[in-house]
Amino acid sequence: MIENGVMVVGVDGSRSATDAAKWTAAVASRRRCGLRVVYVLPEPRRPSTAPEVGGREPLAAEQYRAAEAIVTDVVTVVRAYFPRLDVEGRVESGPVTAALAAASEGAHMVVLGHSGSGSGALEALLRRSTAQDLVRRASCPVASWRGQPGRLPDDERPVVVGIDTGPRGVSVALVAFELAASFGTSVVAVHAWFSLPGVTEPSRSVPPEVLAAPRERFPQVPVVEVSVEGDPADVLLGHAADAQLICVGSHGRGRFAGAVIGSVGRDVLQRSECPVVICPPAR
Question: pTM for the full model?
Answer without folding.
Answer: 0.84
